[in-house]
Here is the input.
Amino acid sequence: MTLSLTIRRPDDWHLHLRDGAILHSVLPETARHFERAIIMPNLVPPVVTAAQAAAYKSRIMDALPRGMSFTPLMTLYLTEETDPNDVAAAHADGLINAVKLYPAGATTNSASGVTNFNKVRGTLEKMAEIDLPLCVHGEVTDPDVDIFDREAVFIDRVLDPIRRATPGLRVVMEHITTSNGVEYALSQGSDLAATITTHHLVINRNHILVGGIKPHYYCLPVAKREEHRLALRRAAVSGDKSFFLGTDSAPHTDPNKESACGCAGCFTATNTMSILAHVFEEEGALEQLEAFASLNGPAFYGLPVNETKLTLTKGEATNYPDKIDTPDGPVTVFDPGFPLYWNVT
Ligand code: DOR
Ligand code: ZN
Here is the structure.
């Protein structure tokens, strides 16, 4: 039995750090284990210009506790007003590593997102030209489409047409939740990749709804049927370069989650690496954890892998905190529903 696993320090290719006081509380939870993260721009107001991304990056670095090493990889929030030249300048300055597409209304703070995809064609073409990846929240918002079908429909109606119209555009399907997402990623070339969250490897839709509603398991895209969770597990542990970790760790305070209209998001930054080691061991694929968490992401983004290492050791069950305190209120840490024996040492 393997009792210890050393991998290159991981990166998180999809993270919500928020802003202001709560940023100071949630950032160390990621920086403790991760060297870099792709930072989501869905603040209020969203990070739409290069100047806003530069200012947000400074606030993140100011919030980083002394002695911790962490590099935020910034993104711009794509709107129908985005100036392709501003995007190109931010990329040329090394300020951003991706642009994020939210269909308007798809998720938290996505109101400024895209409704008419023809209006962002110029920016997408510029991105293909300068080889800047597009991160996509892959759900349609059409009220006639069932929430459990929104990812599959998005692939057919939006994603595939955008990619055909913009050859050379490199795309990350963020937080895929279905076998449809897995199959689409596998059927395409190296210009398409997909991130998978920690929580979607652990929960299916029963976890949210059986025996009473569990708001801390509610996120978007919502967890699907068990068959989809199993497809995500197979993809994550396969070692295939198309798949890498994007936790989508998304802190909301308990009052905002435990509400008649609760916010979407699971906060997994604190215990993600322990959960992943558990999942990969369960799948008999511990040797693939490094590819998923530390190698495939940098390869897609054209960045060097981290030189520092992280060691996980199996031992006594770890007691992670149920919640972390923030100045805005408590944030519940994702409960995988099983004891965690892998510790980051
Ligand atoms: O569950 C989610 N929470 N999904 C998203 O796409 C956004 C995120 C958030 O910002 O809270
Ligand atoms: Zn997200």
In short: The first strand starts at residue 4 and ends at 8. Residues 14, 16, 40, 248, 250 surround zinc ion (ligand 2) (CB under 6 Å). The longest helix spans residues 150-165.
